[in-house]
Predict the structure of Serotransferrin.
Amino acid sequence: MNILLISFLACLVVALPSESAQKVKWCVKSQHELKKCQHLATKSTELECHLKSSVTECMTSIKTGEADAITVDGEHVYQAGLINYDLRPIIAENKTERRCHAVAVVKRDTDFSINDLKGKTSCHSCYQSPGGWTIPIGRLVAQNKIPWEGTDDMPLEKAVSQFFLSSCIPGISKALYPNLCQACQGDCSCSHSEKYSGDEGALQCLKSGHGQVAFMCYDAIPQSERQDYQLLCMDGSRKSVEEYKDCCLLKEPHHAVISRKDADSEQIYKVLKQIPASDLFSSAAFGGKDLMFSDSITELIELPKSMDSFLYLREDYYEAMRALRDGNPPAPPQDGKIEWCTISHAEQQKCDSLQIPHMECRRASSVEECIKKIMRKEADALTVDGGQVYIAGMCGLVPVMVEQSVQQKCNDGGEASSYYVVAVVRKGSGVTWNTLKGRKSCHTGLNRNAGWKVPDSAICGQTPDCTLYNFFSKGCAPGADPKSNMCELCKGSGKAVGDESKCKASSEEIYYGYDGAFRCLAEKTGEVAFIKHTIVGDYTDGKGPGWAKDLKSEDFELICPGLPDTTVKHTEFVRCNLAKVPAHAVITREDARKDVVNVLKQAQASPDKLFKSEGERNLLFSDSTKCLQETTLTLKEFLTQEYIDMIEKTYKTDQGKPDLVKACTMEICIC
């Protein structure tokens, strides 16, 4: 009897919900916000309120797990992304009301540019406001137009006071920086006690001649007066007020909810969506304005999981916020050095051992992380396949060199290399194109060319609701959701259960890449492998690594849509393939193109070393590469419209756009 009672009580304890695990702990900064938060908690029992004294205190409490989330402006999104907090934006406000397009306004009859501001007099809407301070001053410092080497040199306000002859910056300390209040007509506060406070005040300051340039939000310039003014553009030109989108300093980003990178963002979003918008976006009843969220917004938008502070703010805004904290950016190196991004221990080892002049090696966890590092100028280049070239291109990167696998084309400068994507099966397995559904599959990696994009297009095409996830019973597609059936067959490092390398998109996963997908098939883990046409020949008949030493090329065959009921020899790839696609390419930023090409051209003096991998295959470059050829083609020209159409078609039937593409293409805060 006692045993039954104990068992019952144990089951009861397990069945009880863990409230602390389900609660979303919201951080508030004032009694007014606390009052509103407590009201919202009556609408969703999963919301819990935590009071702190400031945004920075809230960020600290979120980092430690004491709280989970808070809504912040763009400047704090930047701060939250720094290493001492390591938070990321997870939800954005969708604001219908105006966001500030920060502009530099001058009278039409003047003739100076933004490069001539030193010694001029300035009017600002308000100290620490987006249009009057953070955006214009941040951009001017980031572009080296206002000299300032950081707080160790002097306070930023002092650097501004030395740059402008006199100013009206309402809200700044009049006692510390008197000339920054010299042009004001009141007490230099951000209030009605200062005639030149706010956007309208800054324009009045310019209009009355107390300043020669006004930093403010564009839409505060009355329609009837716009012909009297022009805007100063960052490129040194001037434009009419109506051309503000081509000449604004920056656009204020949407406010965003920030949390830890490992937080359950879906749960936070779900809890907020349970609360009626009329409660969530209204503050009047609680004695304040814009409490927890902006009162003017209509909805919240869940952000992609790849989103971080840099991707959210975009480069120009991010750099402006960095400049407000750290000063003028360091001068770009003149020695032509580049940093190559590696995605595994084996790649890092090879990169270090090459000892290429002017090239250093920087480690990242995946191709996606490398793309992010290149965007942030924390790395400069790596080699990726066509599907990843497309993703990188959507994030502003460009292909600059292409792998060429035909020596003759290296010698005579022939057309860029390409390859066939093939579906390989074991001979006698009974697998044909018509019997493929429900089989076990091996893929080079999620969103990669041969392993994912091409087979997805060939198998699902325009079929509604068809995805490789539901077409195959299970598979290994490194980079997929670890909980999905497309990670079931992955092996990780092969060392232990619970291996963190399992399904990771790097060579730490045994079944990653061309050789990994083929190994998945060869070891009879999967029944079909989607790979490059040369792989069977490269890894059989004694030519492969240790695990492949007993493989015979004659034991593998090809299947394809054109021959749905049969198989053909692996050498008949021209007749039986899924598509012909662009070769792998080196990607970089446009500003690093010259250095990357120069370093790689010099490195090709030892091609045997550059294109050879020890221990593993295809490290840094495909082992079949004979040379790298420079390309100046645009992304569209390089990939071809046909191939781009194929990629984008798969987004409609697959799991939608890759997460990083979503993060890179969201409209946030550009002009």
Notes: The chain has four domains: 21-97+255-326, 101-251, 338-417+583-639, 418-581. The domain at 418-581 is CATH 3.40.190.10 (D-Maltodextrin-Binding Protein; domain 2).
